[in-house]
Design goal:
Length: 91
């Protein structure tokens, strides 16, 4: 019997491909306390969009035609302390 060691890939980016926005990367760099605070503020700022919509936004692949609405991009960028252009992932 032959055993195969399965190595788990810990980065979703390499599994899913390049992401359109680097929001998740910016959130991952925060401490846990900062992350929780920013997530709370982000979810309030994007209302009436839901939590699941927000997660869809941050997991959008680079090739997708979908764009986060401009007004929501402004709010997200302001809370993350960057510009809208800096939210976009560059290849």
């Amino acid at each position: 019997m032959q055993y195969v060691k399965i190595i788990e890939n810990t980065t979703n980016v390499s599994i899913m491909g390049q992401l359109k926005y680097n929001i998740r990367e910016r959130l991952d760099k925060l401490t846990r306390k900062e992350h929780e605070m920013i997530m709370r503020r982000l979810l309030e700022a994007i209302q009436p969009a839901s939590r699941s919509t927000f997660y869809r936004w941050i997991n959008t692949e680079a090739e997708a035609a979908f764009q986060i609405p401009y007004t929501k991009q402004l709010k997200i960028a302001a809370l993350l302390g960057c510009t809208i252009d800096e939210l976009m992932t560059t290849a």
